[in-house]
Protein backbone atom coordinates (compact mmCIF):
# COMPACT_ATOMS: atom_id res chain seq x y z
CA UNK A 1 0.00 0.00 0.00
CA UNK A 2 2.91 2.34 0.70
CA UNK A 3 4.21 1.81 -2.85
CA UNK A 4 0.74 2.28 -4.35
CA UNK A 5 -0.01 5.46 -2.44
CA UNK A 6 3.42 7.04 -2.74
CA UNK A 7 4.33 5.82 -6.23
CA UNK A 8 7.76 4.76 -5.02
CA UNK A 9 10.02 1.81 -5.76
CA UNK A 10 8.88 -1.49 -4.13
CA UNK A 11 12.45 -2.52 -3.29
CA UNK A 12 14.04 0.62 -1.81
CA UNK A 13 10.98 2.82 -1.26
CA UNK A 14 12.84 5.91 -2.47
CA UNK A 15 13.03 6.00 -6.27
CA UNK A 16 10.07 7.24 -8.31
CA UNK A 17 7.94 4.53 -9.91
CA UNK A 18 6.39 6.74 -12.60
CA UNK A 19 8.12 8.71 -15.35
CA UNK A 20 4.89 10.51 -16.27
CA UNK A 21 1.33 10.59 -15.01
CA UNK A 22 0.62 6.89 -15.63
CA UNK A 23 3.71 5.50 -17.38
CA UNK A 24 6.30 3.57 -15.40
CA UNK A 25 9.88 4.78 -15.33
CA UNK A 26 12.27 2.27 -16.94
CA UNK A 27 14.11 1.63 -13.68
CA UNK A 28 14.44 2.91 -10.14
CA UNK A 29 16.64 6.00 -9.97
CA UNK A 30 17.88 4.95 -6.53
CA UNK A 31 18.47 1.18 -6.58
CA UNK A 32 18.20 0.36 -10.30
CA UNK A 33 15.29 -2.12 -10.06
CA UNK A 34 14.06 -2.75 -13.62
CA UNK A 35 10.39 -1.75 -13.65
CA UNK A 36 9.95 -2.84 -17.28
CA UNK A 37 10.53 -6.46 -16.24
CA UNK A 38 7.13 -6.39 -14.53
CA UNK A 39 3.98 -6.80 -16.60
CA UNK A 40 0.88 -5.36 -14.98
CA UNK A 41 -0.96 -5.51 -18.33
CA UNK A 42 -4.48 -4.14 -18.67
CA UNK A 43 -5.83 -5.75 -15.52
CA UNK A 44 -6.02 -2.48 -13.68
CA UNK A 45 -7.78 -0.65 -16.51
CA UNK A 46 -10.55 -3.21 -16.95
CA UNK A 47 -11.42 -3.19 -13.25
CA UNK A 48 -11.40 0.61 -13.20
CA UNK A 49 -13.73 0.80 -16.22
CA UNK A 50 -16.28 -1.35 -14.39
CA UNK A 51 -15.93 0.22 -10.95
CA UNK A 52 -15.72 3.88 -11.95
CA UNK A 53 -18.35 3.40 -14.64
CA UNK A 54 -20.77 1.99 -12.07
CA UNK A 55 -20.05 4.80 -9.59
CA UNK A 56 -20.42 7.62 -12.13
CA UNK A 57 -23.50 6.08 -13.75
CA UNK A 58 -25.15 5.67 -10.35
CA UNK A 59 -24.39 9.26 -9.38
CA UNK A 60 -25.62 10.58 -12.74
CA UNK A 61 -28.86 8.62 -12.45
CA UNK A 62 -29.40 9.81 -8.88
CA UNK A 63 -28.81 13.45 -9.88
CA UNK A 64 -31.10 13.20 -12.90
CA UNK A 65 -33.92 11.57 -10.99
CA UNK A 66 -33.71 13.85 -7.95
CA UNK A 67 -32.86 17.30 -9.40
CA UNK A 68 -33.38 16.94 -13.18
CA UNK A 69 -30.63 19.42 -14.09
CA UNK A 70 -29.90 20.73 -17.59
CA UNK A 71 -27.97 18.31 -19.82
CA UNK A 72 -24.77 20.37 -19.65
CA UNK A 73 -24.64 19.96 -15.85
CA UNK A 74 -24.07 16.26 -16.45
CA UNK A 75 -21.30 17.02 -18.94
CA UNK A 76 -19.63 19.50 -16.58
CA UNK A 77 -19.83 17.11 -13.62
CA UNK A 78 -19.26 13.61 -14.91
CA UNK A 79 -16.63 14.09 -17.58
CA UNK A 80 -14.06 15.73 -15.26
CA UNK A 81 -14.96 13.40 -12.37
CA UNK A 82 -14.53 10.34 -14.59
CA UNK A 83 -11.20 11.61 -15.90
CA UNK A 84 -9.82 12.46 -12.45
CA UNK A 85 -11.01 9.21 -10.86
CA UNK A 86 -9.65 7.13 -13.71
CA UNK A 87 -6.21 8.73 -13.74
CA UNK A 88 -5.86 8.70 -9.96
CA UNK A 89 -7.03 5.12 -9.58
CA UNK A 90 -5.07 3.91 -12.61
CA UNK A 91 -1.84 5.23 -11.10
CA UNK A 92 -2.69 3.70 -7.71
CA UNK A 93 -3.75 0.32 -9.10
CA UNK A 94 -0.79 -0.01 -11.50
CA UNK A 95 1.61 0.72 -8.63
CA UNK A 96 -0.22 -1.77 -6.41
CA UNK A 97 -0.07 -4.52 -9.05
CA UNK A 98 3.65 -3.91 -9.64
CA UNK A 99 4.32 -4.01 -5.89
CA UNK A 100 2.40 -7.28 -5.58
CA UNK A 101 4.33 -8.78 -8.49
CA UNK A 102 7.59 -7.73 -6.83
CA UNK A 103 6.55 -9.06 -3.41
CA UNK A 104 5.40 -12.44 -4.71
CA UNK A 105 8.16 -12.70 -7.34
CA UNK A 106 5.59 -13.17 -10.11
CA UNK A 107 7.04 -13.62 -13.58
CA UNK A 108 5.90 -14.59 -17.05
CA UNK A 109 5.14 -18.28 -17.47
CA UNK A 110 7.93 -20.28 -19.11
CA UNK A 111 8.05 -23.77 -20.59
ZN1 LIG B 1 14.50 1.38 -5.81
List the SSEs and their pairings.
Blueprint: H1 2-6, H2 43-66, H3 71-103
Helix pairs in contact: 2-3
Summarize the structure.
This protein has 111 residues and is an all-alpha fold.
Structural description of this entry:
The protein is an all-alpha fold and 111 residues long. The chain has one domain (2-103). It contains three helices and no strands. The chain is elongated, with a radius of gyration of 18 Å. Residues 9, 11-12, 15, 28, 30-31, 33 line the site of zinc ion (ZN).
Bound molecules: zinc ion
Average of pLDDT = 89
Shape: elongated
Secondary-structure content class: mainly alpha
Series of H and E elements: HHH
Spatial extent as radius of gyration: 18 Å
Question: Number of domains in the coordinates?
Answer: 1
Number of strands: 0
Percentage of residues in helical conformation: 55-70%
